[in-house]
Amino acid sequence: MTALANERVAFFNGQIVPESQVVIPFRDSGFMSGDAGFDTTRTFNQRIFKLDEHLARFMRTLRYLRIEPHMDLATMKAITIDVFERNRHLLGPHEDFWVSQRWSRGGDKWAGDKGTTPTMIIECSPLPYASRAALFRDGIDVTVPSIRRTPPDSMSPRAKTHNYLNLILADQEVKARDPNGWAVLLDHNGNLTEGLGSNFFIVSNGALVTPKANFVLPGISRETVIDLARAEGIEIVEADIDLFDAYNADEAFLTSTSLCICPVRRVNGAAVAEQRIPGPVTQKLIDAYARLVDCDFVAQYLHHLPG
Amino acid sequence: MTALANERVAFFNGQIVPESQVVIPFRDSGFMSGDAGFDTTRTFNQRIFKLDEHLARFMRTLRYLRIEPHMDLATMKAITIDVFERNRHLLGPHEDFWVSQRWSRGGDKWAGDKGTTPTMIIECSPLPYASRAALFRDGIDVTVPSIRRTPPDSMSPRAKTHNYLNLILADQEVKARDPNGWAVLLDHNGNLTEGLGSNFFIVSNGALVTPKANFVLPGISRETVIDLARAEGIEIVEADIDLFDAYNADEAFLTSTSLCICPVRRVNGAAVAEQRIPGPVTQKLIDAYARLVDCDFVAQYLHHLPG
Amino acid sequence: MTALANERVAFFNGQIVPESQVVIPFRDSGFMSGDAGFDTTRTFNQRIFKLDEHLARFMRTLRYLRIEPHMDLATMKAITIDVFERNRHLLGPHEDFWVSQRWSRGGDKWAGDKGTTPTMIIECSPLPYASRAALFRDGIDVTVPSIRRTPPDSMSPRAKTHNYLNLILADQEVKARDPNGWAVLLDHNGNLTEGLGSNFFIVSNGALVTPKANFVLPGISRETVIDLARAEGIEIVEADIDLFDAYNADEAFLTSTSLCICPVRRVNGAAVAEQRIPGPVTQKLIDAYARLVDCDFVAQYLHHLPG
Amino acid sequence: MTALANERVAFFNGQIVPESQVVIPFRDSGFMSGDAGFDTTRTFNQRIFKLDEHLARFMRTLRYLRIEPHMDLATMKAITIDVFERNRHLLGPHEDFWVSQRWSRGGDKWAGDKGTTPTMIIECSPLPYASRAALFRDGIDVTVPSIRRTPPDSMSPRAKTHNYLNLILADQEVKARDPNGWAVLLDHNGNLTEGLGSNFFIVSNGALVTPKANFVLPGISRETVIDLARAEGIEIVEADIDLFDAYNADEAFLTSTSLCICPVRRVNGAAVAEQRIPGPVTQKLIDAYARLVDCDFVAQYLHHLPG
Amino acid sequence: MTALANERVAFFNGQIVPESQVVIPFRDSGFMSGDAGFDTTRTFNQRIFKLDEHLARFMRTLRYLRIEPHMDLATMKAITIDVFERNRHLLGPHEDFWVSQRWSRGGDKWAGDKGTTPTMIIECSPLPYASRAALFRDGIDVTVPSIRRTPPDSMSPRAKTHNYLNLILADQEVKARDPNGWAVLLDHNGNLTEGLGSNFFIVSNGALVTPKANFVLPGISRETVIDLARAEGIEIVEADIDLFDAYNADEAFLTSTSLCICPVRRVNGAAVAEQRIPGPVTQKLIDAYARLVDCDFVAQYLHHLPG
Amino acid sequence: MTALANERVAFFNGQIVPESQVVIPFRDSGFMSGDAGFDTTRTFNQRIFKLDEHLARFMRTLRYLRIEPHMDLATMKAITIDVFERNRHLLGPHEDFWVSQRWSRGGDKWAGDKGTTPTMIIECSPLPYASRAALFRDGIDVTVPSIRRTPPDSMSPRAKTHNYLNLILADQEVKARDPNGWAVLLDHNGNLTEGLGSNFFIVSNGALVTPKANFVLPGISRETVIDLARAEGIEIVEADIDLFDAYNADEAFLTSTSLCICPVRRVNGAAVAEQRIPGPVTQKLIDAYARLVDCDFVAQYLHHLPG
User: Are residues C265 and C177 in the same domain?
Assistant: First the structure.
């Protein structure tokens, strides 16, 4: 098989192939039912970040979905590194990759086929610098949609699966009114949870507050920020956060694998108290994060701002 | 392109191709997020059943998902009939097809690609006679899992999408204890909703009762049974049904596109009052259904019982 | 006491006075706690509409709040008519009034003063033609905020009180993103309820559907539309309406005392199916409403469009 | 302008005026919608208590309501002190004042007037010694009404607004059966929250327990008691408290700006375990509170018992 | 075995014995867990009322509890009549009996004993005329406690079991404040359900309204009143009733096996609109009920008023 | 009175009698309504375990139920010890007793009899070694039923009462599919609570996690395990546990008075990660528990395995 010039390669069911050959039979339950788990880390300066933590979380997702991995952790790690190394030459100087594992159950459920072997993909993709650069310059406008995060007794928000419609519907609500808005959803108790692949933090009287891990995916970036805050001597509280807290935040930011830390400018149109974007506590954490990963990710994003 | 001998063909993004060529790029949001809508009817004696009603419902699903169909209804209908006709010769004498439309949003959401054109599939597949035949002989053992049906303000249960994990997790709970069990879920108010692709009915004092359409997909088969019941002079009530009702049912059955009407034997291990499977009201409705579709679907299933 | 030239007069605690003299001691519980009930009808061609029905509803609100009216219905009606007649000369040719009764409990609750006599106001005010005219030309953009309508076991949404913050907060969420947006809230079950002083209707397959009266104020205009629909032979259903229904509506409109019937253009940014604003069923009801009140209220609004 | 002899004065929209001149135009949204925020501290021995903390909380309420204060904190503080000083001579030897800021949004919402300037009031009022004195002698009879505290996703219980009907309705339920009863409401999860302007504490096995701040206004008196308990070496826990806990309390008390700490005698008619009112832990905290504010507030109240 | 003079007899596990010999081994799961079902009818003028309907409902309760009756319906009916006839001579001229079946699962669950045979009791007891007579003279004071009716997905309120603590706790809350109060509980949606063994009705604009049967035991007396209302041409609606409805009722009453129909005077201390007790619609239904059962049950109760 | 040879004796309303004479009049509200509280400890090597803690908890249950104990704690303790000593000779060498207090309200509620004196029972019973021995050998198969634990605002799960139908219905659901299954219920928020008389623990990354005490009976064995874990240096967290946590547990176990600690093998059919039963942390806690009570309770159970 031949790849296009500059085409990325991926691991697909046992082989390294050009990405254009990673195609899913439409009867695969990953396509038919979003019946798949995944996890995504990124590189910083072309080094993979916290791969072990991400793979451990990936295993928890698969376990929740009862998808047998059919591969041990060491192999998964080795292939992930291999896939990255094979694509590395495609990165420009100010660029890094997302690196993901995706395992669908495989098989055709409707035909009574239980899927004895999962469909396995390990792949890289370029971070969306251009479309997100302005967020680092201006801050994110968080909007809370009317849709509530799927409750844990319907499907755990802590499993990272290919069933993303709850978050996509939320995003559509928000984007229909503000194409640059970022949806962060409430749970059925009225507490803020998370946005599409992102965790929410506020700074209140010098302390950092973030929703408890019950209704949100416990992000690795979230974990990283909590650790950094402790090291910096910033008080950190995991607590219920409702709109009253959000509207009274001194600062706010989102974390995600790709964003690391990105400041929030407004929540439902109300500006956070601190006028500087990012505010001082956010800035301190951004600096600490950049030191940790040895990569000025903010500069990296801003570098892609349209001329 | 050439198909394998006896391979089915399908419509895929504008062309009729062998099914093995209907493969989805892994970055398609239909695979990445289960971000797709579908609808499924079946044939009876090789005639497509209520295609217009199914296509109308498909349009409602797409509208809810904000996926532009990029095809008008008449074309969709014509292609559906064409796909069926091209595969018809593959059916055996006691066999019929499921016939489905599947539209994913397409594009790669994570890359900021909005998916200007949906990925479009129209396809047939054989009904799972063998794996379900015993259900018609013995009745279905319905089990209510601990998981609750996704609530309407997280994602509408009335849209028919590729996000099936809520129902798959429910099914796993049930199948782990009884491989022949069939999950029917409660909503967060404690009322029975639906099972994987199926609606639930009970017979109580001669009247037919089925959950209101709020928390369930309003099945075309469900609608058909309601119409038949009216024609047969059987009282029909759309009402909340809880476990008390279910345990006190005289008879119970499931409806779905493939099953049409299939009797229920037990709910959470408690046998329905009527010992005969199917009970007299269920039998009356099965007979009326068979007359309507001019196909003895029960015999069709039982024909596939292992010798 | 003397009124300004062209100043409206109002009934205030037993006397007819210029509006500028209708001032509330700040310790009145109506100011301190929003502890007041009200009702509002309007005139059409300078005739008061359904005053008896509005006064009956006002009595139900006072009863719920345990505010003794200290006035009988006949007197209340006579004063209402009197207040209107005294202000009538201030109306221009294309203008009508809102006409309201407002009773606060009076007294200073915090001082242990139970308020033996309510503070009583009966007043007129000009309809907001200019600010709403564009809604009749373009249709309303309904947005569903993240805030839920106050549940009945916290405070009944069916009492018309001076505690409006739930709806004001909802309105702020929506207006922050779209100054012309109109908030319609979900209840805690995920069903649409009402907007600020307005009821929501959709047209679906030729039938009219509106939320049941449990979580919404049973508007007199809503009642009027239901009666008109029956007279016109349009099927009318009171039912739970969720976002799936709203996104699939053929037409939609809001009713309120001032708007009567005003077409909806979009719900959460998604256009209703019918492109014409108003759609044919909405138009039919508008026409019937105009005949009933003998006033072309749409023309009245459009007349105030900025030149 | 002239005040009545012995009439208190207040700050009203920029001026110091006699209270009888602090009157609100009835179209002000503070009257029409309870659309206002406030905060209240008190004096002890004629010194204002924790004014900074109260003003900071007032700012959070205004921020939640999106009412621009149009005044900086230092000015607000100075005016508050000034208003108090101007009224101080009206206090008797055993008397103190409530001191409040009240900001309504102003304007006439219904007329589309957004209220560019808030209506601003800073005022004093005498504490209700006579009506509450018996509570200090006998203990409070807490009754839990059927009504639930407004949930945070309808309106935050942590904002101190003029929308008090939820608490007034609760109070009416309780007072209709026991004129001396004091309503403390459950939230929708079945946990005790707060009463009209008051926080609830129990003593259980020597530890102090009070509801978490999620569903309750985080009272300054509550905060003060928590600090005092820590200083006294009393364990203090913020936790969910349900009726089981309340019925098994060794002691219980309410805190509020005016009451400081007032012992509870019964909850829903069931006497707390400790027969002495106040119990030993409550007494210890009362003593510490009195030392902190240098005022024997219990004696102050008891002094007003009817002869 | 010998009975005391004038001692009632009962059926107990196969034998007719004096009531004093109907004693339950303490390890019986009926005592240890309230693990029993029952049903109760009454006599009118010493004729058993709607025994078949009550036995049918009893069977539904047993079925829900999975207690095998070990007796057919005809035998149960015959024994019930026999027990009544044997005790009939103990009734005074203005007296009637409650007549009940009670089946506990038997066995000692904790010892792993599944209870192969139920403990069976059929018994009579005198109606509590004296303690309830005043309710017919004055009307019932309904109070809504803070406790919510057990939700259907915890235990169906439609099964009549020996697990009465939810209703007893509600009753204690109410009786602690008003010994003559009668608890009627809300469900978790804020709708009124039922009181201890009694259904709630209101009269509103001439129509009769009663809660839907979802959250309440569908009383036979409730059913009887619905039938009588239809026969009398009174509109009858099964609908959600919240406090707003209850406070605005023109009339209200409770039904139960023993009370038949008993007027309500107040709900949470608020008097129903109609001052006469009973109001005209209630009186009409009482008269119709008395004709149906050929017994002036109101006179029967009033006859037992203390001198 | 004479006991059968080898018959146990019990305390019953003031006297020590053979168990066969501990019989409850069927009109006792303990039988009629499950209107009773109880508590149960056990012996280890024929010494009563933590009797004071159990009696204190018993008092809390009675207080919640408003049942006056009519006996002081010291007497209750003395009688409990006396009853145990009188039955001790009936224990075999590898056997111990459950020791319980049971107080029903007494009286006949329906007759208006308030039950001035409770029915009092103190009794012993042999532990169910044989029926539970296999659980210690194989591990418990936990299944989560569809039924939810009764919510605290319907009846507190923290009171130990004779109203066990919620848990019995849950058990029936589970046992109907797997006679060896053990029901552990979710609460209405989707968090795991408890099983019939048992608390649930998981081991996750070396830490012990168990549900917070809000929705569960705070077991004495649970408390004991928490203390032992602390002493052993095992981190212990009281937190919400949902199905995601449970499916990802490294180890899991149940605690109860009789089981002490019993390992869990599967949750909803999914095996815990650690293949050894019990896993290393569970084993460590079992060992510590056995040392504390000076009794190898696991050996005791296994000794009763069928040959």
Answer: yes
